[in-house]
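Q: What would this chain look like folded?
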Amino acid sequence: MTAQPKASASVALVLILIAGAYTSLDRGGIGGGQGHATTAGGTGGAGPRRQVVAGLGVVEPSSGTIDLAAPALGILSSVRVREGDRVRRGEIVAEIANDDLKARLAQAEATLAIRTAQARLIEEGPRTEEIRKAEAQLREEEGNLRLMQAQFERRQRLVREGAVSSEALNAAGNSLTAARERRSAAENSLQILRQGARPDEIGAARAEVRLAENQLAEARAALAKSFVRASTDGVVLRRYREPGEAISTQNIVPVVQIADLSRLVVRTQIDENDIAELSIGQGAEISAPALNGRRLAGRVERISPRLGAKIVSSDSPTEKRDARVLDVIVALPPGASLPINLRVDVVIDLTSAAVPVAGLRGPLGNGPAPLPRALAAAPPPCAVTGCKPAEAVLAGSALDPRPVPIRQSRLYD
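A: My prediction, written as structure tokens:
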């Protein structure tokens, strides 16, 4: 009877120990952590906190690149810029053969000048000299009418006396009737001149002017389409076309590519598994073999609202090509001059304070921007330099002074 209670107590003790072991495994996990090299150990029950996240990026203008295409069909007669040339907004960079369009424009300008002059004459009315001339013509016709009237009366007397034939009287009567008609026509002409143009005549003349103006605007628009102009101040990055090539709307190929290089950014692609703690304003470090050991400090300026396919590749055989990534735009310091499309490594310090963009200093403000503590002693990342991700060790961060191993944003197996 005494051994049975002792056996029951032993079984209960074993069950308690097993339950405790399962609880410890459930809290800490197998291996004692998250299972990713991008996290640092922490204290307490909150679990480890990630210190940095790294990704491969590419340098691009903050305002993007612009491909300038010709808006009209034809043969490219000239390309006035070369790669590396600076252009101003509105400057002509290329021209399509347009001799026919220039002739049409000159014709439209001449037509407008004619229609405008005609409308002005109609609106101003007859000149004083014209009215005086019409008055003199009327007086002359009145004098002729009096003369014809006297001849007709004289011949009537001669016919009664039998001195002339009736045919002579008829001829005098016809001349009198013609003189009366000429006098009436001269009087009507003078009245028309004194009254001026009718409202409908003035309206028709003004409509002719508007029609000529529209034709001129159409000719100018057609000529303007034969020029390719810069849409912004910038630098010519690419020259796609040469003089003599045909421009077609079926297969649109731009003539040149320009961009504003006054402000550069880095488009960094971060794996979707590493985006939880990203925020605008975090510090970043940019490095690449082309920088000859130099590092640039930057700030997270924008974070894309959507995930997408990976477009920046390091050409490494171990790279995950099918990864879904988030674009993070990191602003470079003012005055930074790097080739467009240069591939760089970007390390973002997740422990740095995220502040509004308007309040940033250094790359986005007026003051200096020293590297965050978490990035001050970091070795070059691995995407471009070729070191293994497991070998990149970040020195102590602001939150945890212990060394923190980092991994290239889970973009490698």
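Residues 103-215 form one domain.
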